[in-house]
From TrEMBL:
Residues 286-541 form the Chorismate-utilising enzyme C-terminal domain. Keywords: Chloroplast, Isomerase, Magnesium, Plant defense, Plastid, Transit peptide. This is isochorismate synthase. Isochorismate synthase involved in the synthesis of salicylic acid (SA) required for both local and systemic acquired resistance (LAR and SAR) while SA synthesized through the phenylalanine ammonium lyase (PAL) pathway seems to potentiate plant cell death. Also involved in phylloquinone (vitamin K1) synthesis. Has no isochorismate pyruvate lyase (IPL) activity. It comes from Psophocarpus tetragonolobus (Winged bean).
């Protein structure tokens, strides 16, 4: 473990001498130590913070227990974000003079209600794009009751009071490490993040900074409420993790001084004037047809257990100018009814953004819900034609097979940890702005809140993004796909004290400065699937991103690129 002196030295290496978090695939021991405990310093970005996860050989018994104090302080309401910033700076001055509550570990949230209603995505877009890490999450209204009065609409955050990341697969111990900082008494202290689709797969360079999972409790957070807004700061410390109260206060001040209180309202419906130089599909159309036909052959074999596999495509778009991930997300938010919008960007990493309609699970106390989503058709402008397509989807034998596999698998997973599972509706159409799906909602009552980790690990990956049986589908995906899914199709969401919610990270993209964007989509292959129609479904699913890139150069090259295994 690094000493306090080493930590201060690393903190000030903000330009040429940087601490690398690149971990070679399969590396162990000392090579990964800096990655495990520190972010790479970011020029003009946030100060380093503590990694709440520990390697097994460094686990102390007391780091299995909740931190010493978990507290939320609410200051007097103010009229504007600028006044809220003033209140928080004054609060920090007072906190500096306090002893750290007489405990070696803790987390304290200080919040200022704001009478003015400001969108969280506007607040985040008004901040310096180098202020990392940062996150954004917009969920469904049912899960965001705030003190029984106002609904929490969306959350944006910069800096990490504490983050959680490791190169190994997300484990029960990692879940406990996050839970240490959470409490039902402070429901808005939450850890936002994502988990890789397959933590055992080789990590490509664009996904390295995310680790196998990445969660953060923001240092500075903006909450958009139905009846107003709220600006908050969070301080977390743990002496056993070599992160003292003084470290936490100092890091928070460094972050807060870079936060802007001048909020601009950004347009949500205008298409960014981004010109495309090239577009590369992996796999290309020829290789896609081969992969789908191979999967169909395996499904149709009498001795094969495989009944469904989800194959995916990565499309790399190279524009003439950098893509602003928040500008893209703002445009997606306009058509995001019944969907989750998210952004997650660790230090020195691309931004992972998405507009996903699929809920993995939502837990409030012991009550849990999940969703089955499968089968895809395009929407149509004519109500009569749209209804005709809806009936086609409802009566399609091929889509019914795919949907039934997803719904029944989720039911069995929930029944393993719930007293009773109810499916209502059992099958209906969920209409989105440009796509419609077959849909079912499942709900149950957990026997214990400790079953949350079991639910997460058993539901992911679901047949909707992997296949069935899971092991056979994962094996075929690993043999077939020649790109790294990363967090695509993995769990994306947040853990809270008495409540947690995760979506499935589909309809997503990885946006990186000077590189462009990787746009991801997948489709389920079952008996009766057609390579041609499945390719069209990929095009439909990526259209929410590609519609933002319609201003093509005359000499645009559209290249289907095949990578060697």
């Amino acid at each position: 473990m690094a000493t306090a002196t080493l930590h201060k030295w690393l903190t000030h290496l903000t330009n040429t001498k940087q601490c690398s978090n690149i971990v070679p695939h399969g590396s162990k021991g000392q090579q990964s130590m800096l990655f495990l405990h520190y972010h790479r310093p970011v020029w003009q970005g946030c100060y380093l913070s503590m990694n709440g996860c520990r390697e097994p050989q460094h686990q102390y018994a007391r780091t299995r227990n909740p931190v010493g104090i978990i507290e939320t302080r609410t200051l007097a309401p103010v009229a504007s974000p600028a006044m809220a910033m003033y209140s928080l700076n004054m609060a920090i001055s007072e906190l500096k003079s306090e002893a750290p509550f007489g405990t070696p570990s803790g987390i304290v949230r200080v919040e200022v209600p704001i009478e003015e209603q400001v969108e969280a995505i506007d607040w985040l877009q008004s901040q310096n794009h180098l202020l990392l890490p940062r996150c954004f999450f917009f969920g469904r209204k049912h899960s965001y009751c705030f003190n029984g009065e106002e609904n929490l609409v969306s959350v944006a955050g910069v800096g990490s009071a504490v983050f959680f990341s490791q190169p190994h697969p997300f484990s029960h111990w990692d879940w406990i490490s996050i839970r240490r900082f959470l409490s039902e008494r402070c429901p808005l202290i939450r850890a936002y993040g994502a988990i890789r689709f397959n933590a055992k797969a080789k990590v490509s360079s664009e996904w390295l900074a995310f680790g196998s999972f990445y969660f953060m409790i923001p240092q500075v957070e903006f909450n958009e409420l139905e009846g107003g807004s709220m600006l908050t700061i969070t301080i977390a410390w743990d002496n056993d993790l070599s992160w003292t109260w003084e470290n936490a206060i100092s890091a928070l001040q460094e972050t807060l001084c870079k936060v802007s209180s001048s909020i601009m309202k950004f347009p949500k419906q205008t298409t960014p004037p981004t010109l495309i130089l090239s577009s590369h599909n992996i796999p290309n159309k020829v290789d896609w047809d081969l992969a789908v036909n191979r999967a169909l052959q395996m499904i149709e074999q009498n001795d094969s257990l495989l009944t469904k596999v989800v194959l995916a495509r990565s499309t790399r778009v190279v524009p003439t100018a950098d893509i602003d991930p928040l500008a893209w997300l703002s445009c997606l938010k306009v058509e995001g009814e019944n969907a989750y919008q998210f952004l997650l960007q660790p230090p020195n990493a691309p931004a992972f953004i998405g507009n996903t309609p699929e809920q993995l699970f939502h837990r409030k106390c012991l009550h849990i819900t999940s969703e089955a989503l499968a089968g895809t058709r395009a929407r149509r402008a004519s109500q009569a034609l749209d209804h005709q397509i809806e009936l086609d989807l409802l009566t399609s034998p091929k889509d019914d097979i795919e949907f039934t596999i997803v719904r029944d698998t989720i039911r069995r997973k929930l029944e393993a940890v719930c007293e009773k599972v109810v499916i209502k509706p059992e099958k209906m159409i969920r209409k989105l702005s440009r796509i419609q799906h077959l849909f079912a909602q499942l709900s149950g009552t957990l026997r214990s809140e400790e079953d949350e980790f079991e639910i997460l690990s058993s539901l992911h990956p679901s047949p909707a993004v992997c296949g069935f049986p899971r092991e056979e589908a994962q094996r075929l995906i690993a043999e077939t796909e020649v790109f790294d899914r990363g967090m695509y199709a993995g769990p994306v969401g947040w853990f809270g004290g008495g409540e947690s919610e995760f979506a499935v990270g589909i309809r997503s993209a990885l946006v990186e400065k000077d590189v462009g964007a990787f746009i991801y989509a997948g489709t389920g292959i079952v008996e009766g699937s057609s390579p041609y129609l499945e390719w069209d479904e990929l095009e439909l699913k990526t259209s929410q991103f590609t519609k933002l890139l319609k201003l093509d150069l005359p000499q645009r090259q559209k290249v289907d690129c095949k990578l060697a295994p």
